[in-house]
Give the backbone structure.
Amino acid sequence: MVEMSGAKALIQALEREGVTAVFGMPGGANLPIYDELYSSNIRHILVRHEQSAAHMADGYARIKRKAGVCFATSGPGATNLVTGIATAYMDSSPIVAVTGQVPRAMIGKDAFQECDIVGICASITKYCFQPMHTAEVPEVVKKAFYIAESGRPGPVLIDVPKDVQQESADMVFPEIVKIRGYSPHIEPDVTQVAKVIDLLLTAERPIIMAGGGVHISGAFAELQALAEMLMIPVVTTFKGKGVFPENHPLSLGPIGMHGHAEANKLVTEADVLLAVGSRFSDRSVGRFDEFGRDMKIVHIDIDPAEIGKNKQVDVGIVGDVKVSLKIMLKMLTNRVIRKGEGEWENNQWLKHVREVKEYYRSMIKDHAREVTAMKAIKKLRELLPADAIVTTEVGQCQMWTSLHFDVISPGTFFSSTGLGTMGFGFPASIGAKVARPDVPVVDIAGDGSFNMTENSLAVSVLENIPVIVFLLNNYSLGMVAQWQRLFYNRRMIGVDLKGMPDFVKVAEAYGAQGIRAESMDELEKAIRTALRSDVTTVIDIPIDPEENVFPFMPPGKGLKDTIIAA
Amino acid sequence: MTWRIISALVENKPGVLFRVSNMFRARGFNIESLSVGPTEEQNLSRITITINSDEHTTEQLVKQLKKIIDVVDVIKLPLDNSVYRELALMKLKAEEPTTRLEIMNLVNVFRGKVVDISKRSMMVEITGTPDKIDAFKALVEHYGIIQLARTGVCALPRGVVYE
Ligand SMILES: Cc1ncc(C[n+]2csc(CCOP(=O)(O)OP(=O)(O)O)c2C)c(N)n1
Ligand SMILES: [Mg+2]
């Protein structure tokens, strides 16, 4: 037992969790914490808006697969975090958000900068703590990390009253914590796994649908081994994009609203669907009543509440994806001889898969312009190393990335897929770069989204965290404009961004590098320059505002209603 | 759609009831009644919930409840093997002596109690299954119910079920 202040205990507890960087902004209610941070080795990265602090912690977490940490003061500081916390919650990303709160005696009195952040965050966090006794602080921090990182990960809030930060108490730092209402299911039920194996071995047209759970549990190798052993084609959800190498012959890419046409088609033709770490979101599967009516569905997920939530399944397995797949592989090795490349010729389903894929790939059309989103993204892929990390903003830019950027090295792609938060990508890319400083990190952005959190340029430049903003600039809120063109009879309203601001100048104003690329030549040069640069580069790529994203499954429709082209 | 009882053991600390009820609201579960109270263990409370729903929705509700970190255990109580009770207080208009007598007779039949009498009203206490309380209410409605309060169901399984 050692006597120290709540603030000191908080920082020490973070150090014990191995935290090396926090993203945040100070204010009245968290000054004691900042004062302790002053004498700590933890790096503080000062943000220009707390929303970005949460996104940075989120981007860090998705790449590090450990909790990212953000700090904010009470009231407006805390509410500014909300969008970032909700984004992390929807994508099951572990962040620990530490907010200052007014002193205990002031809580409930509508004090200056008081806000009930615990109440506000109840439905967008896995758990919220508000330590009311100073001596609780070390245990609260330990529990926060345990909850955030284990099971189905997610954000945890720690709201610390200012006087709890200041007061001293005898502190005990627990090595492990137990929470009686919380015990994540890691090990699957092997009898269920055996059932799945039987189903897969007797299936004529099996398909794997891999979701974000594969990324979270890091089950890339196991997934690939399973697919290759049984020669099963793999579609992913958008959240699962890149958990299976997209240049692999068995890869069909993402399904869903803007999934690949072949993936959307083939997934509806399967007789056995193995869904791993996916939550059957409407964006992925379209209509719940229609999807998978004529197939057997197997669902592996760590969250028991996901089994049967959106889709009734034939076999449900609750367990960690990686652990479950490992067990499945082990049980399979006793039963099958690895299928080989010859399968492509002998197996009707695989033949069909290959034909459908080739057919739809040959149907992909591009605009006549020299620089289009598709060409730009393909050029980026060509020039980026395989282990580069790519994230996106939200809108057409995101969907073009989903369609045209093949992720080669599993786990190097992420995006705000659940909440669809504009402004996520840029700060998240900074967080990712902090987690992996050795590889290039790129945010494929839209002008509208980048505008929302572009002030993180200051963070990236001053903190020396160089990333690349690959700005597909259509001078509009393109995705919304597309819906107005297709579903609202071209009654365009609230979507024109009129080419403001000049993003090259914006970049320069922040001390970053801005390059405009109006031809494929210029683009190639710009990408090469950016990759060599040790300062953040914004590549502004003007594209046609009228360009739509296809294929497109219209909202409220099913996968079979996917529109291939205009 | 069937009437069901769900019993949840939860940590007895601030904010837990909020989390539970907030989850119902956020996920669109319709609850019929909810009662909370202390249990045999000092730091655990029991929340008893009744809902009218199908098997699938009930399953989902149970899973979502279990997912809440402060919820320690959740069980579906079998109706045919549980004891469940609700308590109701009803303040009835009773100005005539004959009315009072009639009401007292009914209260006796239902094994209830008259707990307060004033010049113009009587308050009665009825305990039993929600059905029984509904039945009593239907019988006395025509006298005029001035105020009514019900506790929601409280329930336990019969026999020794858990170690
Ligand atoms: C914070 C937020 N506000 C609004 C939306 C709705 N929305 C979805 S896409 C989009 C347009 C995005 O524009 P831009 O970033 O330029 O991308 P583009 O579609 O043009 O590629 C909008 C407004 C959103 N997803 N997030
Ligand atoms: Mg745009």
In short: The helical segments of chain B are 16-27, 55-67, 97-109, 130-140.
